[in-house]
Amino acid sequence: MKTILKNVTIIDAKSAYNGKKTSILIEEGIIKKIGEKIPTADATVIDVPGSFISPGWCDMRANFCEPGFEHKEDLTSGIKAAAAGGFTAVAITPETKPVLQSKAQIEFIKSKSKPALVEIMPYGAATHELDGLNLAEMYDMKNSGAVAFSNGNTTIANAGVMLKALLYVKNFDSFIVAHADDKTISNNGKMNEGITSVMLGMKSIPAIAEELIIARDIELLSYTNSRIHFSHISTRGAVGLIKKAKARGLQVTCDVAIANLVFDESNLVEFDTNFKVNPPLRTRDDIDALIEGINTGIIDAIVSDHRPQDDECKVVEFDNAANGMSTIQVFYNLLLKIGEAIKPEKLIEVISNQPRAILGLAPLVIQENETANFTVYNPEIVWQYGPATNRSRAKNSPLYATALKGKIVAVGNKGMVAYT
Amino acid sequence: MSQLSVKHLLGIKYITNEDIDLIFTTADNFKQVINRKIKKVPSLRDITIANLFFENSTRTKLSFELAEKRLSADTVNFASSSSSVSKGETLIDTVNNILSMKVDMVVMRHPMPGAGIFLSRHIDANIINAGDGTHEHPTQALLDAYSIREKYGDVKGKRIVIVGDILHSRVALSNVFCLQKLGAEVMVCGPTTLIPKYYHTLGVKVEHNLKKALEWCDVANMLRIQLERQDIKFFPSLREYSLMFGLDLKTLHSLSKEITILHPGPINRGVEITSEVADSNQSIILQQVENGVAIRMAVLYLLASQPGPTS
Question: Which residue out of B82, B118, B169, B180 would a mutagenesis test of the A interface target, given it has the greatest number of A Cβ atoms within 10 Å?
């Protein structure tokens, strides 16, 4: 099967064709030819003016809810939403029911997702039942396909257990994906501590609740000489701490959730539960620091942190609402909200090259005879995000039921091409 | 102008200065009414009001009920602890059930911030927030400001300190918004553990020394310590709180000028203020209670005369 992507502009700093508008022939999962004159006979032609192509996007944090919460999302719907959102690889968190904490469960995810265009990489639970106390069978899970180990949206509060988890993953060259939140400080907080929480009389989550755990984990990392990835950091202080840790030569990487990059606490003044996320939306100043962190290489990846919720969890009083935003399908639209602050090549680094490298996936480049793992996106297409187009089961997004500008045109991986 | 700019009274921050003026002048009229021999007017005849109290209340509920009865409204009451509701019916379902019985207005107290706003998106009736968690308690703020206005003629330029548990207080927050709108200078005073870190961003002064705060102010609003809203310990004991932030007659008399004492009630006598202070002639606590009925009558009356959802 032949596919020709006509008149696409290549965005890939590693490619000799970077910035060039050209056509690409894809055959049997390989980029066969790049150039103007490709015969179109017996090929499927995709020609959407103004489109760009980059190496396939990679999401380091999404929740697909299966097994246990299939009413919110399942692997099938999650994968469809991911492909429609431009992703060819997605790492999913173990917060399912039961928790992804055994070989059997990791194998279930791997085998069920195997036929899909999108590569699904489960994180195994770092501790049994995510209890933060008893290490899970990480070696067994690693051998079955667990890409790394995470305690989901729960911090391993016990420093001794965190230290052992960091030591333990060294046995098999893996790493811990950490969520930083000191519950003794954030307590029952519902949003960022700041002017908005004061205005709304809301219990709040101070930035220091996140930063204390990051500071602690960096010291544990230094002591153990292990490897850590801080997932969805959200504060200026966190960026500063990780910058220093990187300068010390520690094996530390980090990502930021797209919601924390484009929305701030002021979005909560109307008590809209779609903006209730964890970590909470912070301030404009934090966003500036996060963007600077991306541009200076402190932050390695932007993640969707896709967290589907149903109406029963969201159409309730703010205090009772669950955390999370459905983001994976509209990730590109959220990305476009950043505007010019991050250059296109840099964006591709943090949504493709770097997350792939952290997760141990093969490097991609839009070049002849390379694997056809790509994302084609177009900033001009206008579409309606709603019941007819939503691929996720969830609609807990502030963008839902609105017209959006910018759309994924196609994704390719594993010898397949999907038009979205 | 004789109409409010809003359909609901969800918080002071959602209303204008003109709204506050209108509520005050309307309350002036109703205060005369409730001091007459015949205290009842037919203004809200045929209007049905549901008082939904998802959190315990004695005096706010009583004050609203009295205001409704003085206006000849029909009332139904629903009281439930938050825990029993969270186990079963959702807030929308509870309220929709009650609205199916053709209720025109809802007075709601709820333990969660924003509950009134949530409700206003889902039902048609006029809603009055009678306290939503630690967010706002607009009628309390209105009656406090009204009482200050009554005492001094104007709120503008007055210095008012709010003393106590600022962190858990919807009364403090609504008071700040209301007093600032009316041109007063506002200070909050309380233990460092009970004042949010960013409270100063509201444009209020923050003081942790009671004596200094009292020396600064014209009016002190002494909040009740609400132990029931504290899920962890913010100070070691009531005794220690009282030692630092309790107001007794000795302190009151040591001040260089005569200040006025407010308290939203119910008073923990001997904790925030001693009985002597509460009962002294500097205290206008009982006037607040009386003004509470007039203010609530004004709010009910003005909201009921708003163009309704059906019109």
Answer: B118
